[in-house]
């Protein structure tokens, strides 16, 4: 596979979509990002990395971080089925509602529908905080190691901006706490959640860091982070729940496990082959990158690679 040639063709195909959509404006620090940006990277399972466009420009990972927090929780809390206790506190079903919705929590007794909506991610962050004592720093250290980039850092401005406009997330956390579904104080959980979302990474960094999902749980150094069945389960939840309430449409178009973020990034996995990351800040009405989805759609069309 000539990855570089494929990426060049994908970038050309995606270019007309780049200025479509709306840059996230409910987090003021994200609103400042230029809508003209587009980058894409592929990291194969052997460590080779290819990129095009703005693939080495850092951006705010936002909800892509939820994939890594879930992986770290599963890695550190192995149970009889390899899942630990987390699935007693969060479900694995698509939500069908916006990522910051309060509606289902009341109907389902404070149990979030899946770990990739905000409520579910708060529960996962809470669990990671219990397991590590410092959820956000633990994630940052892991991402530095897996990406091979020791300079990865939190973005103070983004974290502050999220905290200033985080009333909905605070409401979600307090509501779940009222049902006994948080182990740590709400302010601590929210703070670590915001710090995780504020981490800045490039397409290159994310494609490389997510490689363990394509290698069936093996880290970049060959050590095992997850059992193969655990990596399979994360990929499965990414496929069904990773692109907010547009997961069905995304699976139909792209056919890959993926996790998007309102910073404009999408990470996608082709098990046994490679991990991809695409970034373009213009979002559709569901919060997914317009050009990013078009690029991944074209990539799977060109290569014929999907999980189906």
List keywords for this structure.
308 residues; alpha+beta; five-stranded antiparallel beta sheet
What does this structure look like?
- This protein is of the alpha+beta class.
- The protein has 14 helices and eight strands.
- The protein has helices at residues 3-14, 28-31, 65-76, 103-107, 118-132, 135-147, 156-164, 167-178, 186-198, 203-209, 211-214, 228-241, 247-253, 290-303; strands spanning 39-44, 49-53, 59-60, 153-154, 199-201, 258-260, 265-270, 274-279.
- The strands form two sheets. A five-stranded antiparallel β-sheet has the order 2-1-8-7-6. Strands 3-5-4 form a three-stranded antiparallel β-sheet.
- α1 (3-14) crosses α14 and α6 (135-147) crosses α10 (203-209).
- It is globular.
- The model has no long low-confidence stretch (mean pLDDT 94).
Dominant shape: globular
Please provide the ordered H/E string of secondary-structure elements.
HHEEEHHHHEHHHEHHHHEEEH
Report the biggest beta sheet as strand number plus sense, adding barrel if it closes: 5 strands, antiparallel
Rg estimate, integer Å: 18 Å
Strand numbers in spatial order across the main sheet: 2-1-8-7-6
The count of β-strands is 8
Structural class: alpha+beta
Low-confidence stretches: none
What's the average pLDDT? 94
Measured distance between first and last alpha carbons: 19 Å
User: Strand portion, in percent?
Assistant: 5-15%
The total of helices stands at: 14
The helix content, as a percent range, equals 40-55%
Topology at a glance:
Layout: H1 3-14, H2 28-31, E1 39-44, E2 49-53, E3 59-60, H3 65-76, H4 103-107, H5 118-132, H6 135-147, E4 153-154, H7 156-164, H8 167-178, H9 186-198, E5 199-201, H10 203-209, H11 211-214, H12 228-241, H13 247-253, E6 258-260, E7 265-270, E8 274-279, H14 290-303
Antiparallel strand pairs: 1-2, 1-8, 3-5, 4-5, 6-7, 7-8
